[in-house]
Amino acid sequence: MGLYEDIGGAPAVNAAVDIFYRKVLKDDRIKRFFDDVDMDKQVAKQKAFLTMAFGGPKNYTGLGMREAHARLVKRGLNDSHFDAVVEDLTATLKELKVPDHLIAQIGAICESTRKDVLGR
Amino acid sequence: MPRVVFREAAYALGGESVLDCLTTRGLAVPNSCRIGVCQSCLMRAVRGTVPEKAQTGLTRTMRARNLFLACQCFPTQDLEVALADDVIERIGAKVSAIELLNDEIRGVRLRPSSPLEYHAGQFVRLFMDAQTSRNYSLASVPSLDEDLMLHVRRVPGGRVSGWIFECVQPGDNVTISEAFGDCFYVPGKPDQDILLLGTGCGLAPLYGIARDALNSGHRGRIHLYHGSRDACGLYLIEQLRQFAATHPNFLYRPCLSEGSSTDGYWSGTPPDLALKDTPDLTGWRVYLCGNPQMVNAARTESFLAGAASSEIFADPFLSTGNPPTQGTNAL
Fold first, then answer.
1. N or C: which end of chain B has fewer CB within 10 A?
2. The whole model's pTM is what?
3. Is A26 part of the contact surface with chain B (CB cutoff 8 Å)?
4. Hey, are the CB atoms on B296 and A39 less than 8 Å from each other?
């Protein structure tokens, strides 16, 4: 069993996505990066992100991550924003009573994307 | 070996997904993540049964339309499919009446030559000629109305609306498509509260949805906020006040975004007034139709107010091209 199965697969993604995305949109540190996006498409993207973070089937590549965030890096996306997203995700998982050792694994997966997301 | 039928050709499935089956043969099907997340590869089953797994994560209205994710679809029986928004059927219809709803909106009643399967709040494409068409929402309800009803707003310089206003007469024959769209009432949660927000002829789908829900015995609250700049832009006011008088769970708020409030009207936009009345939308189902800016802003606002993303149904009316425009006429 991998992380994705442990956490509950697609239903876990669906349970987490609204809670997580609502936190992000209400987070004064990062909400400006989302103010011009179509919410329907964002929900799909957030699901894709959570699927990746939960160790699910991978469709992300480092290059894809870079390209997807390049526009935001130009607008000032930096470590503090990256940390804010991870914090919001951690709070979401705690709210859903995900065990700490799984939260730690998810945090490590997020961390592994930092350089690509921030375009370094 | 099951087959997938697409654009009148059949392809044998050897255990791969419908998406793989079609794309490896060079057929263009939009796709991106290929793991059932992004919903780019949405298709529609025209004939046959969709495996349950292929509808994971889709809204109830999408399931009701037989939409599915091609990348997650591994049929065990023959399945005929189309792209989600492909028009595969054209139907003749006779214009049975044209009514004035207000200065700029006409109610067009159509009687299809063969029965049209649809839900109130979906839209049909109305063809002016083979190349020119626009989408109009259905304000009629299949179980209540014999005719289809469209609300057509005259768009300045609009080709199709100009044609409808100036040329189309009762008795004329026109061509329409089958019904599309995910913004409609689905029974099954009769106690859920429903919020309907619309501007201009965005009332058409909401009017259909409200009547469909009331007719289906919906017990939860149904709150309709219809907005325009001034009172001239509103319509069906008396009918909606009548619904409110006869259905205790139905609330109607005609909203004016300009000028001060007058008797019987509320001053403000539909989302602002609705969220003032109901700041917490947890558990609500929300329908948004009309002006795209209002629809997109209200979608985020109602989500932040607690509505689940899967319970928000939006139909932004774009002025030309594919997405929709309007609905229908009075009772």
1. N
2. 0.85
3. yes
4. yes
